[in-house]
Amino acid sequence: MTHPPSGTTGLRRRAGARAAGLIGAVLLAVAPVIAPAASADTATPTPTPTPTLSGVVSFTLAPIGNGIVDAGDPLAVSVAIDNGTDAVVPRTPVTLSLGTRTLADRDALTRWLAGGTSGVTTTELDDDTIPAVEPGGSQVAGIGIDPDDDALTDLEPGVYPLLASYKRIGGSSGKATSVIVVPDDGEETDVALVVPITAPVTTAGLLTAEQLTALTGPDGSLTALLDAVAGTPAVLAVDPAIPAAIRVLGTSAPESATAWLDRLLALGNTRFALQFGDADAGVQMQAGLESLAQPTSLQAYMAAEDFIPVPEESPSPSPTPSPEATETDASAPVYPELDALLDIGASSDPLLWPATTSVSPETVAAFGALRIDDETVTAIIPSDATAAGTEGATVTGHAVSGDADLLVVDADVSAALAEAAELEAGAERSAELTAATAYLALATTEADGAPLVVGLGRGDGRSVVSLRAAITAVTRAPGVSPASLGSVLGAPAVDVTVADTDAETEQAATASALFADEVDLGDFATILDDPTLLTGPQRAEILQILAVSWTEAPEWEAALAAHREATATTIDAVGIVEPTSIQLLSAGADLPVWVRNDLPYPANVTLYAVADDVRLDVTEATEVVAGPASNTAVKVPVQARVGSGQVTVELQLRSPAQVVIGDTQYADVTVRADWESIGLVILGVLVGGLLVVGLVRTVLRRRKARAEEDAE
Whole-angstrom Cα distance, residue 442 to residue 188? Predict the structure, then answer.
C-alpha cells in the first residue's frame, strides 16, 4: 500500500463507511501531535528554542472515544510514536489485536495496562505501518475495524484487552496495551465528580493583583478551570483564599479578577469550601492541633482608599449635611467582614479533602472528633487508603470508620483522570482517558447500585481542552448518572478500615514548627495597636505553605525555610540600638537611647532601665511610641549620687503585655558626680581672683596718675 507523505497520518482502512468515519475521528484526536506544513505564502515564523529531547522513544496505543465500543459500532484506534532521541526511528509495522475474554477485575486491568500480557489470549485484527520518525518528531497511524468484523460481533459487556505490537525495520520489537469497554445497558450508577478550584502554590498569604491578572486572564489557569466546569455537573471544591484575594483589593481589584469571581458565584454547580489556601487538614491533625487552623484577619491586605463608599445619587434634593459630617462620612472606609471575604457562594456542610500522604487511622479518627461551626465534618479519602481498596476491591462513595464520616474517592479512576488532565498530546491523553473509563466501568459493576465518588485532583497549568475531556469522560461515561455529594452522603454508609500506612511525618513536624513560630510572633505583635496586622498575614501564610499541592513540590523545603527566616526577621524588627559609652559629668542628666523599628506600623513599647550600682539612680520605666520604619530617640532621666565610678545600665524593651522585645542591651556610664561642685568652686575662685586683680590694677593706675599730676 502507499503511505501518506512523512508528517501526515498513515491510515489503513477496511471496507465500511462507518469505520472510515471513525478513522476520520482519529485524525481529529491526534491533530495536536502532528505539525502542519507551512504554506508557501506564510510569513516566516519567529524562531523558537529547540525542545529538549527526552532520550526515549514512546509507543502509545489509544482507542478513539475513550475506548467505548457499543454494539454495532466500529473500532478506531491511533498508534503513535514519539521520538525523543537524536536518531531517526525507521518505519514501524504495527499489528492490532483484541483479547478474546474480558479482564476479570481491576488488578487484572492494572497488570495489563502496565504491560503484563502473559496469560491473555488475543486475536489479530489488522496491521499498518508507521512512517519513519525524525528526531524530536511524532508519527501516528490510525486503524479502523468494521463493526461486522468477527472479533467485534457478539461481544459481551465488559473490559477487553487491546494490544498493539510492532517490530521496527532492522530494529527492536515492542508492544503497547490498552482496552476497549463494551457497555452494559443495565441500571445506571450515581457518580459524583469533584473538581478542585485552586491556584498555584504560594508562600504569600494571598495572591497579588498581578498574579490575579494573569490567572484570571483569557489564558489563565483559573479561567481554564471555570471554562472546563461550566455547564457540567461537576462538584466544585473551592479554595476560599482565591475570592478573598480579589475582595481585599476593593476598588483596586483587576477587572478580569472581579469578572472571574462574579462568574464563579453565578455557576450552578454544587460546591464546598476547602481549607484556606487548600491547607492539608491531615497534617494539622498530625501536628497535634485540637481544631483546624482558620484565617484570623485579612485586614493587613486592605488599603483604606479602596473601601471608601461611593455616595448614591439621590433623585430628589436632600438636606445638605454639615461640613464635618460630610468629611467624616466620605472619608471613612467600610471594610468587609472576614466571612464576607471568604464567601464562595452557597456551599454544603463542612468537608475536608486532605492529601493522600496524610491519611492514616490516627488522622481519620481525629477527623471524627472535629467540629466546624458545631457541625460534624466529612473527610474525603482515596480508596487505596482503605484495607479493601489496597486489596483491589471497589469501595463505594459513602463510608464510615469509627466516628468518622467519609467520602471515598476511587483512586484508580482519579489517578488516570489526573494524568489525562495534565496531557496535551491527543494519543497520550486518549490512552489515559480510556484507562479511567475502564476502571470506572469495573467500579460501577462492582458497586452494585451504590454511588461512587471520583476526584480530579489538584493540578496547575491544565488546559481547558484537557480538563473538559477529563470531566466529560466521567459525566458521560456509559452506565453513569452524575450525582451531587449530597445524594452520595444520603446513601447507606459502608464500614471501612483505614489502612495502616506510613503517613508523612516530615510535614507534620514542619506544621508544628510553623505554629510554634506563630505563637512567638503573636507575643511580639502585642506591641501594635492592632496585633492582627502581623498575626493575620502569618496565619494566612502558614495555611498556604501547608497546601496539599505543596506535598510533592520539590521547592517546598526552600519555600519553608524562606518563610521561617522572614518570621524571625519580623520578630527582630524592633529593638534597642546598641548604645555607646557615656560620660556623666553632672548630678542630673538624660541618658540617650535609640529604639529601632523596622515595621511599617508604630510600636508601643516600654523601655526598662536598671543600674547595677547605687551611685546612679535611673528612671525605671519610660513609655515609648517608636515611629514606623525609623529610629526613635528616648531620653531616660538619671541622677548621680555621691561618688564617681563605672556604672552599667541594663536596657530592655517590653510590650504592653510584658513580652520582652528584642535583645537586652547594656550601656556603660562613667559617673563623675562631684565634678559639678568642684567645677563651681574653681570657677568661683577664678572669677573672684580676676575681680581682685582688676580692682588692684585700677587702684594702682589711679594712684600713679595722681602722683604724676602732683609732680607736674
Answer: 13
